[in-house]
Task: structure prediction
Amino acid sequence: AQTVTQSQPEMSVQEAETVTLSCTYDTSESNYYLFWYKQPPSRQMILVIRQEAYKQQNATENRFSVNFQKAAKSFSLKISDSQLGDTAMYFCAFMSTNAGNMLTFGGGTRLMVKP
Amino acid sequence: DSGVTQTPKHLITATGQRVTLRCSPRSGDLSVYWYQQSLDQGLQFLIQYYNGEERAKGNILERFSAQQFPDLHSELNLSSLELGDSALYFCASSVDGIGGQPQHFGDGTRLSIL
Result:
C-alpha cells in the first residue's frame, strides 16, 4: 500500500514571500499521479496542481509550482508571492493507476500567511 | 464552485441511527468517490463507483454502504452509527475514472453523532 508523508504539520510565511511545503511518498509503482489539494477554513477541497510521474517536467499553475524528484519519491509544493487567501490546510495526494483511482492523502500541512 | 453537490451540509443524529448522504457529480462525470475526513484518521478513501458499478473499495466499514444510480448521483448509507463516525464526508467526481483524472470535491457533509 502507498503511504504519503507530510512532515511539516504547520508553517507560516509573510505575505509576498515564498514558501515550500514538503511531501514524500512510498510506492513500488512506476506510473502514478501526484496532487496537491488546498482546504481553506471553508473546508472545501480545491485542486491546486497535478503531476504525472512519467513526465520529468515540473508542473506549474500560476504562483504554484512543484519540485518532483521521482528517485527520491519527493513532491514539494512551492507557493510564490504568498497571499492571505493562501492560508489553508494543504494536502499532498497519491493516485495509483492500478487499483481504481482513489487518492491516498498525507496528513496535511497547515499554512498561515501573515500580513 | 466545483460542480459537485452534496446534501445535506450538516447532519446531527444519535448513536445507533442510520443516515443517508447524497452526492450529485459534475455534469458529464461518470465516476464518484467517497472520502471520510476525521481528526484521528485524516482523509481516507471509502469507495468508488463508475457508471453505476463499484470500482474500488477502501477502508469502508461493513455498517456503511453506497450505490450509484442510473442518473449518476450517489448515496452513502451509514447505519448503527457510533460516536467515532463523526466526521466530514466528501464526495468527489471525475470524468471517467481512468488513471490520472483530477477529482473535484463537493463541499462535504458534516456528520455529528451525539
